């Protein structure tokens, strides 16, 4: 039914990959999320993220600036990978009047023109994408954000919202000279309902700080990423981040109860209070899906190949190989979370011992205390960090049927140096190709082969990283043209 | 030669320790408990000695309630051969004093007759109760004492005693095959009464409080101000 299609598309636009090729669209969010509480067997019911009427209003308000069809005119010779988007001349150029206006709203400390600081904000975490912005703004409240955006809208100044700048697809840095609106100053936790497990906070809160805060209250955040020390919850939500606990708590669609959003023209859309259970039932998660064995206590199931382990051992400090005896081809990291430690331990041991007897597992270690467990996680979370130390990394985030998951790694290994690891429990492979520097010839070996292969398996070319700049034009590998045109906002 | 290693089940050292609301002790319900990190190092050292051929058998011992068997299973999973569990239900108001611990350990050692006893230097929960060694020493009338990097040696009667400090080694992980083997290893259970040890405690814990929160530092502008503060506020002059 066409009506329902629009709702699905609206949600995808706002909550999953907002930083598509639609460069003009910008907003900041204040969000409330509902982490699952411990004991994990009792979880609060998940509710709809947006009511139907709010979705429609959103669609209508995202005016003409929202759509910018990418024009394939010329390849940019740049230190980044190929971007075929040319700067749209309809956007204005920043001038000193603009800067003084921003200073009048934000004060001198909120407007940064210092070259070094702006340069840092112009480059993404991997050093792969570099913008040419000259201005960094640091608003401290929703009203300030709203004023910035309405001004930029009237002046037709392009804007890029930035959180922790840990994105991997070039969606968090300017393409050209967009004004960077960083939410790093909006990092307050507004309230926490410790009966229902509902956290209300500003979009610039760092995920690790939120985790520590809720853990002190006896709760757990429904998502966890390697980048948790730097990433912001606003960025996580706007890109519908997956992460290490996805297998247990599901996607953020089900964990976000409400948002306060600033639209591209500066209008503040308060959807924090309009949340009710939506009768389309589209996003209702089926929490108690029956699963085998470890199902109800499993909270992470990660895999990595031995290249990843070698790399982590070589480049990370303070880690020791938990299984030094003989090098195995694959390693799996399993985590359980539950309310009864001895019960969970017994279950985990029974599961592992049975797997050993059946020959599925060759060897393993169980962490005996929290510090050993952190060491295990340090290895898995540090693979990304270690790979960046080698040189340039091409990262691909693919959703593939589990039985074929590793085939692409083996195919790529014939041509380039490649790491394969990821969330096996979700069928999500992180394919990393290592190279000494970013180079067109290496890229040619990878793309479009990777996308075509994934498309042939009916997988997704972006399981959780989003499309950003890197894959903005590649959406057709995973979505039909009709679906894409509906996603584009009119 | 047999090595006896004493281990203890304590609050996991990565957990933030809290005092119970009724101030009778430290919160231990629903808190992750693990082997004392110093004891892990002691077990690791014993295992390395056995692997180097200096010892034939490693025996782990602990004093504690029934749940302490988990800690012994961890030691067995790391590679210890046997374990001894002295059952004692701790009453928080009347904890086991170092002298009592030493007496129990002595009784266990007299039965097992090890050539070497290794202990962790201190325990993370109550470091002031830490080392049972001073009492243990007295129990054995030590003759000489040598100190070297991270270890202190007491030559006592028949056994040599060593306490282990951090960074002596990196304890190994418990591998699955060893966990499987540990299930069939023997844990001998005894009570202090069977050992003929008197563990009556003369001390009673009245109240447990958190240490006072550290106050913020103050930056002073001159030496006179410093003197003034030392006299009037800190009262050390």
Rg from alpha-carbon coordinates of chain B: 21 Å
Could you give the count of β-strands of chain B? Answer: 11
Helical segment tally of chain B? 6
Oligomeric grouping of the chains: heterodimer
How much of the residues of chain B is beta strand, in percent? 15-25%
- Write out the strand line-up for the largest beta sheet of chain B, numbering strands in chain order: 7-8-9-6-1-4-5-11
Most extensive contact? A-B, 22 and 19 residues
- Overall form of chain B: elongated
Kindly give the count of domains of chain A.
3
Secondary-structure element sequence of chain B? EEEHEHEHEHEEEEHEH
Largest beta-sheet details of chain A:
5 strands, antiparallel
Major sheet characteristics of chain B: 8 strands, mixed
Number of strands of chain A: 15
> Radius of gyration of chain A, rounded?
23 Å
Q: How many alpha or pi helices of chain A?
A: 16
Give the fraction of residues assigned to helices of chain B: 25-40%
> And the CATH topology of chain B?
Rossmann fold
Keywords:
heterodimer; A: 490 residues; alpha+beta; Uridine Diphospho-n-acetylenolpyruvylglucosamine Reductase, domain 3; Uridine Diphospho-n-acetylenolpyruvylglucosamine Reductase, domain 2; Alpha-Beta Plaits; 3 domains; five-stranded antiparallel β-sheet; 32% helix; 16% strand; globular; disordered N terminus; B: 237 residues; alpha/beta; Rossmann fold; eight-stranded mixed β-sheet; two-stranded antiparallel sheet; 22% strand; elongated
Short synopsis of the structure:
Chain A is an alpha+beta fold and 490 residues long.
Fold and architecture overview:
The complex is a heterodimer of chains A (490) and B (237). Mean pLDDT of chain A is 75; it is low at 1-52, 62-82 and 273-293. Chain A is an alpha+beta fold. Chain A has helices at 2-16, 52-61, 96-106, 115-122, 142-155, 207-216, 233-238, 246-249, 252-255, 306-315, 341-357, 370-390, 407-413, 440-446, 449-456, 481-487; strands at 29-33, 111-112, 136-137, 159-162, 179-182, 189-193, 198-202, 256-262, 268-270, 298-305, 330-336, 365-366, 392-399, 417-423, 428-435. Chain A folds into 3 domains: 7-42 and 186-288, Uridine Diphospho-n-acetylenolpyruvylglucosamine Reductase, domain 3; 47-181, Uridine Diphospho-n-acetylenolpyruvylglucosamine Reductase, domain 2; 298-489, Alpha-Beta Plaits (2-Layer Sandwich). Chain A is built from 16 helices and 15 strands. Chain B has a single domain, classed as HUPs (Rossmann fold). Helix content of chain B is 27%, strand content 22%. Chain B has 6 helices and 11 strands. In chain B, strand 8 (151-156) and strand 9 (159-164) form a beta hairpin. At the A-B interface, helix 11, strand 12 and helix 12 of A face helix 2, strand 10 and helix 5 of B. Strand 12 (365-366) of chain A pairs antiparallel with strand 10 of chain B, so a sheet runs across the interface.
